[in-house]
Amino acid sequence: MVSDYLNGMNQAILEIDTSKIVKMVEVLQTAKKNSKRIYTFGNGGSGSTASHFACDLSKGCGIRAFCLNDSMPSITAWANDSDYRVVFERQLFLMDKGDVIFAISGSGNSQNIIRTLKAAKDKGIYTIGLTAFDGGALKDVANLFLILPTKNMETAEDLSMVVCHIIKTALVVK
């Protein structure tokens, strides 16, 4: 079982579309150069990765990066007073044209993620999505997306962190 998981991870890593990662690095580098902000977000394990990624970008790369799911009072207030589907979308008032929003979603179908990406694009915010399985609705709404080559949620979460660490490492070098 352990070997099967690791072999699956190794195979998936070899199948990642690295050209999309290069493009993500370019987009984030341009945002940094133009003093724009990066906003990350996700649900569950993807939310944890989004939080970790925002920390890496700010601490390790000098990018003004923030994670939309890091404020539990904001999340629970909007969920309670409105609807959970808007907990990230309502935070778009923080963003300016030219900022970048980076969504992480294993399935690519979470309504709060999709609604936020659509609204962000309407506001002139560049949208990036990181997902797995078949890409879900995310692939149809993000300006740039990467579908991780797996149909296993645990592997998707591991690969998401790998991709985020690749991006961070590339941004430190530039």
Model description:
The chain is α/β, with parallel strands linked by helices and 174 residues long. The chain has a single domain (2-173), classed as Glucose-6-phosphate isomerase like protein, domain 1 (Rossmann fold), CATH 3.40.50. Helix content is 55%, strand content 15%. The protein has helices at residues 2-15, 18-33, 44-61, 72-81, 111-122, 138-141, 153-173; strands spanning 37-42, 64-67, 100-105, 126-131, 144-147. A five-stranded parallel sheet has the order 2-1-3-4-5, sandwiched between helices. α2 packs across α7 (153-173) and α3 packs parallel to α7 (153-173). The radius of gyration is 15 Å and the shape is globular.
Topology:
Elements: H1 2-15, H2 18-33, E1 37-42, H3 44-61, E2 64-67, H4 72-81, E3 100-105, H5 111-122, E4 126-131, H6 138-141, E5 144-147, H7 153-173
Parallel strand pairs: 1-2, 1-3, 3-4, 4-5
Helix pairs in contact: 2-7, 3-7
